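To the wet lab folks,

You asked to see what we're planning to order before we commit. Fair enough. Below is the target structure as C-alpha cells, and below that is the sequence we designed to fit it. If anything looks off to you, flag it before the synthesis order goes out.
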C-alpha cells in the first residue's frame, strides 16, 4: 500500500515557494478541456474531434494568516504573467503547471470566529501535467 505525505507537495508561483496553506485541499490543478470531443453523424457514425485547448486552472487555498497572502494578492493586482508549478515529490512523482499564467483576481475575504481561507484561481495558458 502506498503512502501520501502533503509535505512532499510544493507550489512555486513566479519563482517563489508558496507556504501557509489552509486545511483541506491545499492546491488543485486540472486541464480545462478534454483531449477530444465526440458526436455522431445522422447515420450513427462516430466523429471524434481533437481538442487543442492549452488552458488549465490551478487553485491555491491559503490560510488567512499565510505569509504568502500579500505576495499572491500583489501578483494578482499586477496583471502580469508568471510561471506556476505544482510538484508532488512522493510516489508517484507528479508535476503540473506552465510557464505562462495569471491570477484571475485577488482573494476574496471573509471573517468569522476562526481564521478563514483565501483562494486564488490561476489560469495557465500553456498547461502541462506529467508523471
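Sequence we intend to order:
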Amino acid at each position: 500500500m502506498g503512502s501520501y505525505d502533503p509535505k512532499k507537495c510544493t507550489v512555486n508561483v513566479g519563482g517563489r515557494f508558496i507556504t501557509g496553506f489552509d486545511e483541506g485541499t491545499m492546491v488543485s490543478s486540472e486541464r480545462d478541456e478534454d483531449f477530444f470531443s465526440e458526436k455522431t453523424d445522422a447515420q450513427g457514425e462516430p466523429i471524434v474531434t481533437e481538442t487543442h485547448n492549452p488552458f488549465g486552472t490551478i487553485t491555491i487555498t491559503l490560510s488567512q494568516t499565510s505569509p504568502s497572502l500579500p505576495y499572491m494578492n500583489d501578483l494578482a493586482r499586477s496583471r502580469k504573467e508568471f510561471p506556476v508549478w505544482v510538484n508532488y515529490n512522493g510516489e508517484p512523482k507528479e508535476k503540473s503547471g506552465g510557464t505562462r499564467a495569471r491570477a484571475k483576481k485577488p482573494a476574496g475575504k471573509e471573517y468569522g470566529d476562526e481564521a478563514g481561507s483565501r483562494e486564488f484561481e490561476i489560469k495557465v495558458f500553456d498547461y502541462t501535467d506529467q508523471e
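Structural context that might help your review: The chain has one domain: 6-130. The mean pLDDT is 96.

Thanks,
Computational group
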